[in-house]
Amino acid sequence: MSVNGRSDDRPVRVAMDAMGGDFGPKETVKGAIEALGNDNIELILVGDQEPVQAELDRYDTTGRSVTLVPSVDKIGDDEHPIRALRSKPKASILVATKLVKSGDADVVVSMGSTGASMASSVFLLGLMDGLERPCLGGPFLGVAPGTVMVDAGSNMDCRPALMLSFAALGSVFAHRFLGIENPRIGLLSVGAEEAKGNKQVQESFALLKESHLNFIGNVEGMDFFTGRADVIVCDGFVGNILMKFAEGLGGALSGFVQERLAGSLSPQDLAKISDDLWQTTNMPRTMGGPLFGVNGAVVLGHGSCEASGVAGAIHTAVRYVRVGLVDSMREELSQIHKNQQTASEGSGAAAKVKAKN
Amino acid sequence: MSVNGRSDDRPVRVAMDAMGGDFGPKETVKGAIEALGNDNIELILVGDQEPVQAELDRYDTTGRSVTLVPSVDKIGDDEHPIRALRSKPKASILVATKLVKSGDADVVVSMGSTGASMASSVFLLGLMDGLERPCLGGPFLGVAPGTVMVDAGSNMDCRPALMLSFAALGSVFAHRFLGIENPRIGLLSVGAEEAKGNKQVQESFALLKESHLNFIGNVEGMDFFTGRADVIVCDGFVGNILMKFAEGLGGALSGFVQERLAGSLSPQDLAKISDDLWQTTNMPRTMGGPLFGVNGAVVLGHGSCEASGVAGAIHTAVRYVRVGLVDSMREELSQIHKNQQTASEGSGAAAKVKAKN
Q1: Of A190, A224, A257, the CB nearest to B240
Q2: Class of the domain covering A137-282+325-357
Q3: Which CATH number fits domain B138-282+324-357: 3.40.718.10, 2.40.320.10, 3.40.50.2020, 1.20.1080.10?
Q4: Residue B251: how many CA atoms within 13 Å on its side-chain side?
Q5: Residues linked to residue B260 through DSSP beta bridges, in sequence order
Q6: How far is CA A137 from CA A110, A169, A210, A239, A312, in A?
Q7: N or C: which end of chain B has fewer CB within 10 A?
Q8: Chain B partners of A189 at a C-beta cutoff of 8 Å?
Q9: What is the mean pLDDT of residues A284-298?
Q10: pLDDT tens digit sequence for B255-299
Q11: Residue of B nearest to A200 (CA)
């Protein structure tokens, strides 16, 4: 069996950073207890002993596996991740990630600072070969739940080789997590033709074309909704802007619908549809976002999540472990890099493009 | 009075490329006739004599100023713009643009190939100093009609000096066209802090900060909807992706609402709200997009426009001329470049950034 996978029926051991997010530990504990009812898990709550125990005491956990592992302090969104990790060596995110490192947990889930979670993952679990940073990926639109975007915001100024790694990671995720056979990979650009786009995209196109991935060429902004591709590759600058743009547009359209339908629907129905419309553009708030590229399973949730979002992120984490994503991703990346080396020993286009970077 | 402005009460002379778009000359002529009823214009229809005359004959234009200037052939979306301009020297877009060049028209409006319109504008009217290509700008979201984006899709891989030019052009548009005093300029990035974003954005930040523009710093994807900035500056790669993404998301959410409300609303009301929702993310289809940076007024419409979209683009064109946008933009660009030269003669940060590019 895979070291990182849990394809058997044993419960998945979830290290929950109970201090993370805007509403930790109240909503994180509540959500984690909710998850106990949904998924076959052993729950390990990591946080300041007293407040977490106080929250835990609100619930009846008789017969369920719930442990509290004490930590000291938390890292806020406003802190510099690396500096904060040094000055708070017992912070909840570090203690929780260490449980995965030591094999005492299968996955860590946090609603806390994205920067701190990524830094502690890199520091403790290590990066997969060929990456400089982890990346964020997954479906992000409720109206397009089968379309995976990588990178959703962690890497700026990406070289073409890194874009190829994103494609490989996204392909594994789409295959293993979403069950899509031979996922179609599209490169986000401004037109379908090979010559379209900026320099980064033109050079990435050449690398993707020569890879063993199922590359279908360039796709455009509307293709998040047309189903042309299963995985859409872009750098984290564009990915972050798109995620936040979708959130903003969803909110604005939700307000628009609410205004236009006032009078035609009951206040309850109106609130419901407006809320659904907003949710549909805010998928990471309901299911968390898996971190790709570190040697261990990590799922990040939105800081503003309440209990249901926390339970959703834990559900994602359980699936992440069950399908053995970490091992599959490491294998795919290693294959990609082996092929690239072979290509660069030849004299093909890929070698020339690689040399430029 | 300004050469390019028409602040008096004389009619604006509109050279309409009657052959352009998916539905020319039928819808272009119909839309132009509709515009005669909305705006004080003299209409100059440019196109293949017979089909355009046949369309024109459907309408009673007694007492209105309508002229037909014959041209030969049109340039399609699938043709290479520069090559097509050479092989079809009497194409409608060239003949129409020449009327602006010669002073026989105040503005050209086309629903045809964007590439061909841009190329003929650059070739015949010339670029303003400091630009390498024209750019597209304006509000593009019905839910955020006061937020201007520049560049919406024509320039890839922009140097920081070009991003500064976009900011200047957008600022003039927001001030003169939308009536916003001292428009707030935001730079599109992934976080508010100066160090956030890719290299292009970090370097552009330094230039914008030292400019005389009302620069408020970085903004994020959601700020198209928060009203934090009047003008959002990005390169054409990101701008094009955002425009098409918004179109796609609007369409998807419109379908979502239609499905969710089936049964709660009458089919007519349902169709209306679904249509409104779609329209609200597709503003350029109803009002056209002004071209910035060429020495003459040019408005481009979406190829799929029917008559009402054509009339909307003509309305934009009339306003473009009345407020004298071309002269104001040229003055602002010249001011920006004068300041940059002064700065680069000194030893400030701007000079160092400029030298790197």
Answers
A1: A190
A2: alpha beta
A3: 3.40.718.10
A4: 14
A5: none
A6: 16, 9, 23, 9, 16
A7: N
A8: 237, 241
A9: 88
A10: 888 888 888 888 888 888 888 887 787 776 778 889 999 999 999
A11: B157
